[in-house]
Write a structure and sequence with these properties.
Strand content: 5-15%
Helix content: 40-55%
Shape: globular
Distance between the termini: 46 Å
Structural class: mainly alpha
Strand order of the largest sheet: 1-2
Number of domains: 3
Largest sheet: 2 strands, antiparallel
Number of strands: 6
Order of helices and strands: HEEEEHHHHHHHEEHHHH
């Protein structure tokens, strides 16, 4: 902020403050920021690239908004499409509804069971409309349709994102996000991640923390692979 103010003074520029300050965390001192003589307003929650983040880093409100939007799209499909055949409903769900439930999920992954159930309710409602599966349970319907539960898809997405950070296009950034653990065991593949210890429970559900234990349980051929095609092998799918 000080550098920006000095730059404005040198070039005789004035800035119209259109931003707000978000103070995340319970122990945040909540300093008052100013740009020259104009104070910057404080905001309890802000949306960035479509993701709502509040001061407490709670994602329940985000899950509720996502469920509401996905439910509206699903309702529009049910009102607009008369057919209830699998070949019609399933592609529409996968193309229009499910992306709403998984957009940037590594950031706002649900923290509480009630939020997980809220998101899963949308998937259950969608597959329940498919004709011919009324007599089956939710698990059997997913198996019949070849679908994973949203919880398993979130885990798969976390592992793929971690793979991309450490070995893919974002390798340089991944070196700062994850710390590699040193193993002297002969049977170890040597590419394990270090698990951190945190006092706050909310820290444990962050992407860079929750994915570590699942990554360390991957088969050796998956962790040592250099291509994402390895995620289709049985060892990865078993997670």
């Amino acid at each position: 902020m000080d550098k920006l103010e000095k730059w404005a003074c040198v070039y005789l520029m004035t800035f119209k403050v259109k931003c707000k300050v978000l103070h995340p965390g319970q122990g945040n001192p909540c300093y008052q920021y100013r740009l020259r003589d104009e104070a910057i307003d404080r905001s309890p929650a802000e949306k960035d690239l479509g993701i709502l983040v509040d001061e407490q880093l709670e994602m329940s409100h985000r899950c509720a908004l996502t469920t509401q939007k996905a439910n509206c799209i699903l309702g529009c499909i049910k009102r607009s499409v008369t057919s209830r055949l699998r070949k019609v409903i399933l592609p529409l769900y996968c193309a229009l509804v499910r992306p709403q439930l998984e957009y940037c999920i590594q950031l706002w992954s649900p923290q509480h069971k009630k939020d997980m159930e809220l998101l899963q309710w949308i998937q259950r409602r969608a597959i329940k409309t498919i004709r011919g599966l009324e007599h089956l349970s939710c698990e059997d319907r997913l198996r019949k349709l070849g679908l994973f539960s949203l919880e398993k898809r979130r885990l798969q997405g976390d592992l793929i994102a971690a793979f991309q950070y450490m070995k893919g296009d974002y390798r340089k950034n991944g070196e700062n996000l994850f710390s590699k653990a040193c193993y002297d065991r002969a049977r170890s593949n040597g590419f394990k991640l270090r698990e951190g210890r945190f006092k706050l429970d909310i820290r444990k559900i962050f992407f860079t923390v929750r994915v570590v234990k699942h990554w360390n349980r991957l088969p050796k051929e998956v962790e040592e692979s250099q291509a994402l095609e390895e995620h289709s092998r049985p060892g990865w799918r078993a997670l």
